[in-house]
Fold this protein.
Amino acid sequence: MSQKRILIVGAGVGGLSAACYAAMNGYRTTLLEMHSRPGGVCTSWTRGDYVFDGCIHNLAGTSPDSRLYGLWRELGVVPRLAMRGYDELVAVERPDGPPLVLHTDLDRLEAHLKALSPVDAPVVDELMAGARWFRGFDLLGLAMASPAERIAALARGAPMFRKWGALTLERFAERFSDPFLRRAFPTVVYDWPGQTMLMALYFMGRASVGDLGWPEGGAQAFSQAIADRVVSLGGEICYGTRAQTVLVEHDRAVGVRLADGVELFADAVICNGYGPDVIFGLLGGRFTSRAVRDYYAHPEDRVEMGVHVCLGVRRDISAEPHAIVLPLEGPVVIDGEPRERLYVECFGFDQTLAPAGAAPLKVVLPTSWERWDRLSRHPVAYKAAQAEIAEAVIGQLERRFPGLRDQIEVVDVATPVTTQRFTGNGRGFRPDPAVLVKALFAGRRLSQTLPGLSDFYMVGQWAGPPSLPMVAAMGRDVIRQVCRRDGRPFAADPGEASG
Ligand SMILES: Cc1cc2nc3c(=O)[nH]c(=O)nc-3n(C[C@H](O)[C@H](O)[C@H](O)COP(=O)(O)OP(=O)(O)OC[C@H]3O[C@@H](n4cnc5c(N)ncnc54)[C@H](O)[C@@H]3O)c2cc1C
C-alpha cells in the first residue's frame, strides 16, 4: 500500500503541530510555508545584538505536572527549551504610591492586596478563593483530555464558570472601594478591555503552580524546536513556498496550486493561516455556511497587540517586573490615539536575548488595521508614523527609566502591516470565549472542517481558539481525525523524557 500524503499550508504553530503528528502517524508529510522560517506570529526577530519577541508573554503548560507539558514534549519543545515561571504576572504602577503587583505566590498576593487596601479584604478573599480554585483545575489542559474527562471537568467547573464567566475585570473591580484598585485591576490581563474574570483567575491560579511561564529563548526558539521535530520525524518543510489555490475535485481537496503554478497532489490538505485568506482566497469562498461567512467576512479592525515598539537597551533591567502597566501623565496621543497607559515588557530575565548588561524592552499598543493599511501605501508617511511612535514612547519611558534614551542601541517598530507581510495575519479577530468553551468542553471548533468539502481541514487561531496550546492541540486533533477517517489508530510519539 502506498504511503498517503498530507499537504499542510502554513508553518504557524498549528500547522507545525499537524505536521509532527502526521509524520508520527506514517503520512508522507509536506509543509508549505511562504516565509523563510517557521512560526507564523509565534516569532522573534534579531536587530543588532537583540532578539525581540513578537509573541510569548505567558505560555501554558510549563509545569511538568500539567497535561500541556506532555504536548510540548511530543512536539519537541521540552526538554530542549528550559521552562521558567515568573515571580509576578504584572505590576500596575502609579505615580503616587506603591504598585499593584500580581505576585504569582498567592499567599504573598493576598497579603499585598490587603495591605494596599485593608477595607477591601472581603473582595480580596473572594478573588483569592477563585484563584486558588484554579490551582487544581488545568483548564487549557482539557484540550488534551478524553470526552469523558471533559464532561467530568465541566460538571466540576460549572459553578465557577457560572459565577465568573460573564463577569469582566472592569465589573469585578467595581467591588473594590480603593480607587487605585478599582482603576488598576481591569488592566492586569495585558490591559485588554472586557476580559473575563475566568481568564484572570486561570492566569493567577496556574501561574502559582508554575504552569504559566516562558520557554527560554522565546517565540522563535519555540517554533524552531517544533519545526526541527517535524524534520526529525521525516516530514518535509518547503520555505519560501506560497500556496495560491486548494485544488478541489468532486468536492474533495486533492492538492494545492502554488504561486508559481506548480501543482502538488495529496490525500488530504490542511490549511493553517489567516482565516479570510483560506476561506475566500485559497478556496474561493466555495465552501461556507452562514456562520463561516459571518465570522470570516468581517474581521476586526482593532488589533490588540498590533504595534510593537522594540528597544535594545544597554541597561540591566533583570530586576524589573517582566510586564508593567505604566500610567502616563494625562492622555498622550501615540499612534493617533489618546493613551493613558503603556504596556511595557522587560525581557531582562532571559539572558539569551541580549548581551550581558543589556536587554530588549518592548511596548505593545492596540491599534487600527485600517490606519496602518492606509499608511503603508505612502512609504514616507508610514516611516514617519513609526518614528513618531518610537519617539513618543521613548519620551514616556524616560520618566520611568531615567537615562534610558542614552542607553538605547536599537529601535524597531513593527506594525500590523509588518505582521501581515510576514505571516499573512492582518486584521484582528473577536476573542470569543464561547469558541474556547466549545473547543475545551465539546471538542468542537469553528471550522476544523468546512461544509461540503472532504479531505480538507483547517488548523490555527482562525479555526478554533487562539493561543499556542490551543492551536498545537488542534493540530493534534486534526491528525487524529484524519487517522480515524483512514481507519488507523492514532499514535503520538511521547518525545524525549526530561532529564
Ligand atoms: C502579539 C501576540 C502575542 C501573543 N501572546 C501569546 C502568549 O503569550 N501565549 C500564547 O499561548 N499565545 C499567544 N499568542 C497567540 C498565539 O501566538 C497564536 O494564537 C498562534 O501562534 C497562532 O498560530 P496559528 O497556527 O494560527 O498560525 P499563524 O501564526 O497564523 O501562522 C500561519 C502561517 O501560515 C503561513 N501562510 C499563510 N498563508 C500561506 C500560504 N498561502 N502559503 C504558505 N504559507 C502561508 C504564514 O506565513 C504563517 O507562517 C499571541 C499572539 C500574538 C499575535
